Amino acid sequence: MSRQDLVYGEPETSAWAMGYATFAGVVLVLGGIFQVLVGIAALANDDYLVVTRDYAFRFDITTWGWIHLAVGLVVLFAGIGIFSGAVWARTVGVFVAVLSAGAHFMFMPYQPIWSAVVIALDVAIIWALTAHGRDIAEERGV
User: Contact 79/10 with Cβ under 8 angstroms?
Assistant: First the structure.
């Protein structure tokens, strides 16, 4: 970075910020793959998941399979788009992270520990993309 950039107030791209944005993209891709696998497992075997009684968001396991398959594919492609640095990819990334967190909140009785981990990762993704997403775009020249 030149002295002229500092004088005119151009922000310096932080390695930490790039790391957070890259982390968000990687976790979105990985989370999308995992959600697709959970969806396929639920579609292939209805006995794979244990159903709890009297839960407000109780759906058929096949329905959950389709939900996770669809959400997982969208999350996967949003994660791939993050690496391009495009604004649309960051926006979609935040949206699908919120969608994923909501789906896992409703999925909590079926797989509570996994759902809690995914919700925590979704919160980290939302933070990384909203706080540092612009840095990956500046680095890539988008």
Answer: no
Give the pTM.
0.68
- Segments of the chain with pLDDT less than 50: none
Q: How far is Cα 1 from Cα 103, in angstroms, rounded to an integer?
A: 43
2: left (phi over 0), alpha (psi -120 to 50) or beta: beta
Name residues whose C-beta falls within 8 Å of residue 103's C-beta, 6 or more positions apart in sequence. 67, 68, 71
Nearest one of 79, 70, 74, 76 to 43, comparing CA atoms: 70
Residue 104 CA to residue 137 CA, distance in Å, equals 29
For residue 141 the two structure tokens come to 């020249």
Write b or e for each residue in 67-96: b if 16 or more Cβ atoms lie within 10 A of its Cβ, otherwise e: bbbebbbbbbebbebbbebbeebbebbbeb
> What does the pLDDT look like over 101-112, one tens digit per residue?
988 898 888 788
111 phi-psi bin (left φ>0, alpha ψ -120 to 50, beta other): beta
**How many residues comprise the chain?**
142
Q: Which residues contact 105 (CB under 8 A, 6 or more apart)?
A: 115, 119
